[in-house]
Write a structure and sequence with these properties.
Number of helices: 15
Number of strands: 17
Low-confidence stretches: none
Length: about 400
C-alpha cells in the first residue's frame, strides 16, 4: 500500500464523519422497519434504572421468562414487573438466563466495579504476539491490489452482527476488500440491512451443525482477515480458539471485538452499545447534564461506530504487516472505547447538530428500493472509496468466496 511512494494525504470532514455515526442510508419512497423491539428500552426498577435489550427473539424470551411474563407482554406489563425488582438482581437474573440487560451506573460506580477496573487496564487495541511467515509476505490471492483500490483481492471473513463489526467491514469493502459476511439461519436485522450489508456478500451457515462448521473451515482456509464479534469463549466452543486458528491458519489476521472487554468477571457477558452506555456511566452522565429524570444516553451508538473504525484501522495495520511477512492479531471492545470517550469528554458541547446538503447525498439502489447514501467522510489522495456490491440483505449469497 503505497510501498516506497510518498504517503497519501488524508482528510476527514468532521461534520460528515459525525453523520456517519448515525444512519448513512436514507430510503426514498419506502420506510425502514423499526430499529427496536417493542419492549426494548429503559425501565425504572425498585432502586434505579435498568435497560432491557430484546431485539433478538431469544433475548426477549429470556427477559420475559425472568419477569414471569408471557410472549404477549407489552411495555406496561413489563414496567410493572420490573418495578418489583432491585436493579442489580434483575440484571444478574436476565444475564444468567442468557438475556441482555444493564443497570444504569454512574461513572464513579463503574470505575469502582471489578469490570470497570479490568477494562480500564486494557489497551485500546490489544495486539497479540507477532508471528513470522515463511512465504516472505506473498499475497496468495489472484487479484492484485491497485493504487486506487489498496485492499483489492483481500478476503475478509465477517462473523459480526448489528453495528460495530459491520461498520469495520463496510469500511474495508469501500477500499476494495472482498467481504463475505456469515449469519446464523435465524438471524434478522431488518432495520440495518440496507445500512450494513452494502459492499458485502452475505450468506448463512448453521455453525451448530457439522456441515456448517465444515463450510466455515473452508472459508477460513481461503480468508486473509477474520473479523468476529463473538464473546471470548464462544469460538472456543466451536473449536476455533485463537491458538487453534494461529496453528492451523498461520497467515490469517484475526481481529476480535466484544462488548465488555477481554478480562474481568464480565468478559464473557453479552452486550450491545446501548447496554455498555448504561453500565459505564454515559447514560447517567447525560441524565445529570441535561437534568433529566431518566437515563440520557448519547444520540447515536457512538461506541459501536468508534470501535468499528478502530477495528478497521487495526485490520489494515495488521494486513500491512502481513504483506511484509508477519502476522499479529488484535482485540477491541466497546467498553474499552468507552473508557477513552469518558476520559476525553465533549470537545464543544455547544456545537450545532451536524447537517449536510441533500445535493451531496449519493443515489443508491438496494434490494428493498432506492435511497441516498452519505458520501465518504474520509478522503485519501489517489484512492477510490466506493462499494462494488449493492445492499442485498442477509443470506442473499452462497457461503463461498466469489
Amino acid at each position: 500500500m503505497h510501498h516506497g511512494a510518498t504517503p497519501p494525504t488524508i482528510s476527514l470532514e468532521r461534520n460528515l464523519a459525525s453523520l456517519w455515526f448515525g444512519m448513512s442510508f436514507t430510503p426514498v419512497g419506502w420506510d425502514l422497519p423499526p430499529a427496536w423491539d417493542a419492549i426494548a428500552g429503559d425501565y425504572r426498577s425498585a432502586d434505579g434504572w435498568i435497560r432491557l435489550h430484546t431485539n433478538a427473539p431469544h433475548h426477549r424470551a429470556a427477559a420475559l421468562n425472568v419477569l414471569g411474563l408471557g410472549a404477549g407482554a407489552n411495555r406496561e406489563t413489563v414496567a410493572s414487573a420490573v418495578e418489583l425488582w432491585a436493579g442489580e438482581e434483575l440484571e444478574a437474573a436476565v444475564v444468567a438466563a442468557n438475556g441482555c440487560a444493564a443497570l444504569m451506573r454512574s461513572q464513579e460506580e463503574w470505575w469502582a466495579h471489578p469490570q470497570g477496573r479490568a477494562v480500564a487496564a486494557e489497551p485500546l487495541v490489544a495486539w497479540g504476539a507477532r508471528r513470522l511467515m515463511d512465504d516472505g509476505g506473498t499475497h496468495r490471492n489472484s487479484r492484485p491490489a491497485s493504487a486506487q483500490r489498496p485492499l483489492e483481492g483481500v478476503r475478509v471473513l465477517d462473523l459480526t452482527r448489528v453495528i460495530a463489526g459491520p461498520v469495520a467491514t463496510r469500511f474495508l469493502a469501500m477500499y476494495g476488500a472482498e467481504v463475505l459476511r456469515i449469519d446464523p439461519p435465524d438471524w434478522e436485522e431488518p432495520a440495518l440491512e440496507a445500512e450494513m450489508t452494502v459492499g458485502k456478500r452475505c450468506a448463512r451457515l448453521d455453525l451448530k451443525t457439522s456441515e456448517g462448521l465444515a463450510a466455515l473451515h473452508e472459508l477460513l482456509a481461503g480468508a486473509d482477515i477474520f473479523i468476529h464479534g463473538y464473546r471470548p469463549d464462544a469460538l472456543d466452543w466451536l473449536g476455533l480458539s485463537e491458538a487453534w486458528l494461529a496453528e492451523h491458519h498461520p497467515q490469517l489476521v484475526n481481529v476480535a471485538l466484544d462488548a465488555y472487554g477481554w478480562s474481568g468477571p464480565w468478559a464473557n457477558r453479552r452486550g450491545f452499545d446501548s447496554l455498555v452506555q448504561m453500565s459505564c456511566g454515559i447514560a447517567h452522565a447525560g441524565m445529570v447534564h441535561f437534568g433529566s429524570d431518566r437515563p440520557h444516553p448519547l444520540p447515536v451508538q457512538a461506541l459501536d461506530h468508534a470501535t468499528g473504525y478502530l477495528c478497521a484501522a487495526a485490520a489494515i495495520e495488521a494486513w500491512c504487516e502481513r504483506l511484509h511477512g508477519s502476522v499479529r492479531n488484535a482485540r477491541l471492545s466497546l467498553a474499552r472505547t468507552a473508557v477513552e470517550l469518558l476520559r476525553t469528554g465533549p470537545s464543544d458541547p455547544g456545537a450545532p447538530a451536524p447537517s449536510l446538503s441533500p445535493a451531496l447525498l449519493v443515489p443508491e439502489s438496494t434490494l428493498w428500493g432506492p435511497g441516498l447514501r452519505l458520501p465518504p467522510a474520509v478522503q485519501i489522495s489517489g484512492l477510490d472509496a466506493a462499494t462494488d456490491v449493492p445492499a442485498l440483505g442477509i443470506g442473499s449469497a452462497p457461503p463461498v468466496w466469489a
